[in-house]
Amino acid sequence: MKSTLSRTLIAFLIAATLALMSAHTAMAASARIKDIVDIEGVRENQLVGYGLVVGLNGTGDSLNNSPFTKQSLQSMLERLGVNTAGQNVRTANVAAVMVTANLPPFSTQGSRMDVSVAALGDSKSLQGGTLLVTPLLGADGEVYAIAQGSVLINGFNATGDSASIIAGVPTTGRISSGALIEREIDFKLGAQHTLRLALRNPDLTTARRVALSINDFIGVPTAVPEDPATVRITLPRGFNGNIVDLLTDIEQLVVQTDQTAKIVIDENSGIIVMGKDVKVSSVAVAQSNLTVTIAENPTVVQPAPLSNGVTAVQPSTQLNVNQSDTALAVIDDSITLQELVDGLNALGITPRDLIAILQAIKANGALQAEIEVL
Fold first, then answer.
1. C-alpha span between 181 and 136 (Å, rounded)
2. Which residues, 6 or more positions from 38, have their beta carbon under 8 angstroms from its beta carbon?
3. Which DSSP symbol is given to 190?
4. Which of 66, 105, 131, 242 could be a cystine partner for 121, CB 3.0 to 4.6 Å?
């Protein structure tokens, strides 16, 4: 009797352990819906404006080299009742700048947002400057915000008679809460009856899983996958609330995401990123390194005593060629990502050589993944 209970308990513990391991594996590749989709209409809007930064300590634009700064300064002074037409204005304390900002979704009139400032002319630094009233326009040409305030920069510029030090970028800065929103975007989310969810990483499988998860939770066919990047949701009849309530209920649902096997390569920096589903068919790989070293060691040749010769320089070149060959290494069929990395590292190759090898394996048809070169 005790033996039977012991075997039953052991079997139960094994089954529970396997279930936990399976659940952990599934959750490792899962994410909340709110983390993998963008909601239609819930978006930022880009704003841009042109303005002047004043109060610089002689690091502003040269008015002779930046005519737009001079024209803007004269126009601003005229609006303030100061006539400078025909006058030779000389100042190095003003800089023309471009002001950019992202209007947050559902921002109300009177709220504030951050803005970025970047010099447009030949200003050396915006340190200590103050941005004057600058309208920020949207793509439709309408003014949505007004920016003004002290510019905070992340770099500095120190110049002496024979040396200078520049750290960071002193010609760009930021104004925290520097813009006052004057116009709202007319979009009433709560009045919508149907919306689209845009997947940030489009995939057919993920889109279908998102729709199934929503429908299982609501209990009626509310979500429909339209394409790899879009899932349309419709407010079901009899739902106790509006579309905002529906989005609040479903955004916490956990979905197992899926992506195509891909290798991302940045040839400039030599960075390689491979996904977990990358597979390689059986293939043999060999890599050869060729190193050529050239060293110049010129020698000075003196003429013989009491001769009419002159001192000359005789060139001397040392040329060395070193070629190291690596034997063929066989990569087995359908290996894991870790085994692929270990096998390629065993060849003693550099990341840039690895890029060439991966591209050659792809050209051979043995790499079952997409290669994206940045």
1. 9
2. 197, 198, 200
3. G
4. 66
Backbone angles phi, psi at 195, to 5 degrees: -145, 160
Per-residue pLDDT at 22: 44
Mean pLDDT by 10 residues, the chain (374 residues): 48 47 50 92 94 92 86 87 77 93 93 95 91 95 96 75 71 94 90 92 93 93 94 90 90 89 80 78 66 61 72 68 56 62 68 78 80 82
Its pTM stands at 0.68
Average pLDDT, the chain: 80
The beta-strand segments (E) located in 200-298 are: 223-227, 230-234, 254-256, 262-266, 271-274, 279-280, 283-285, 288-296
- Asked whether 358 and 372 are in contact (CB, 8 A), the reply is no
Neighbouring C-alpha atoms within 13 Å toward the C-beta of 41: 16
Residues 150, 178: Cα–Cα separation, whole Å: 8
- How many of the other CB atoms lie within 10 Å of CB of 240? 6
d(CA 334, CA 357): 17
DSSP codes joined into one string, 48-112: EEEEEEE--SS-S--TTT-HHHHHHHHHHHHHTT---TT-----SSEEEEEEEEEE-TTPPTT-E
Alpha helices by DSSP H, the chain: 2-28, 33-36, 67-79, 204-218, 243-250, 337-345, 351-364
Name the token pair of 139: 């793509």
Beta strands 262-266 and 370-373, pairing class:
parallel
pLDDT tens column, 167-213: 678 899 999 999 999 999 888 888 899 999 999 999 999 999 999 99
Distance between CA atoms of 249 and 246, rounded to whole angstroms? 5
Is the dihedral angle over the CA atoms 31, 33, 37, 43 positive or is it negative? negative
Token pair in block for residue 20: 């936990």
Domains of the chain: 45-181 (no CATH), 188-256 (3.30.1360), 263-373 (no CATH)
